[in-house]
Specification:
The protein has 236 residues and is an alpha+beta fold. 37% of the residues lie in helices and 33% in strands.
Length: 236
């Protein structure tokens, strides 16, 4: 028996079979996604969580060892009057207020990339000396920075009198004098003991914007931070 098949009919049959095959493959693929992908995501999330937890644990222990190894810093910052004249950096007028030499433990660092202040000062250091460089005290404090501020908190009773904390620590806005000093500052980490030399300065922009330094170690609140032009960095 001879079967006659119209060519157009045969073409449509092939197309329909191809579509059916594609649909079948699509269904199988979607089924595989539904079965396998969520499990893979869960496994991936677990691996990432373990990795982050492990990194945090190792990093935290490293910081603790560094804080203990660096020991307390006995001397207070040295501030003296200066006759240095004002100078310009870009559109900023830098007015020296006092020479400043500080050896301290780095309690925290905070990087800044945005804002008028960041054009001059890319990083703040929370610095501690005397009792605020003693790990027996620091271990009972939660120290943080943000928005150009530095704060410390404690649970229950303060480890030392709060006024002593203020007088032996400072949030310092650091203005590097050159690219080498900037690189050194950005490589410093919490727990290290550093010596910074330079000047406390006031700053004014040509458009009238101003930024002033504190000149005493016992003030708190707005305007209590030191604004330091850093010419030398020594990491111990």
């Amino acid at each position: 028996m001879t079967v006659l098949v119209n060519a157009r009919t045969l073409g449509w049959a092939v197309v329909l079979k191809a579509k059916a095959l594609n649909n079948a493959v699509r269904v199988l693929f979607l089924s595989w996604i539904a079965l396998v992908f969520p499990k893979s995501i869960k496994t991936w999330l677990v691996v990432v969580a373990i990795a982050i937890g492990g990194w945090y644990f190792v990093h935290h222990r490293t910081l603790e060892r560094r804080m203990l190894a660096s020991g307390p810093v006995g001397e207070a910052p040295v501030q003296q009057s200066t006759r240095e004249k004002a100078f310009d950096v870009g559109g900023f007028r830098i007015q020296p207020v006092a020479s400043y030499d500080i050896r301290a433990k780095v309690l925290s660092t905070e990087r800044y990339r945005m804002g008028r202040e960041a054009e001059l000062s890319p990083v703040d250091f929370a610095l501690g000396w005397g009792p605020m460089s003693d790990q027996a005290v620091l271990s009972q404090l939660q120290i943080s920075q943000g928005g150009r501020w530095y704060e410390y908190r404690w649970d229950n009773q303060p480890p030392i009198e709060p006024g002593m904390m203020a007088r032996h620590s400072a949030n310092t806005h650091l203005i590097p004098a050159n690219s080498s000093v900037k690189k050194d500052l950005l490589n410093i980490e919490r727990g290290q003991v550093v010596r910074l030399r330079g000047m406390l300065v006031n700053v004014e922009h040509t458009d009238g914007w101003k930024w002033f330094t504190s000149t005493t170690r016992d003030d708190t609140g707005g305007g209590a931070c030191e604004l330091m032009w850093v010419t030398e960095v020594v990491v111990e």
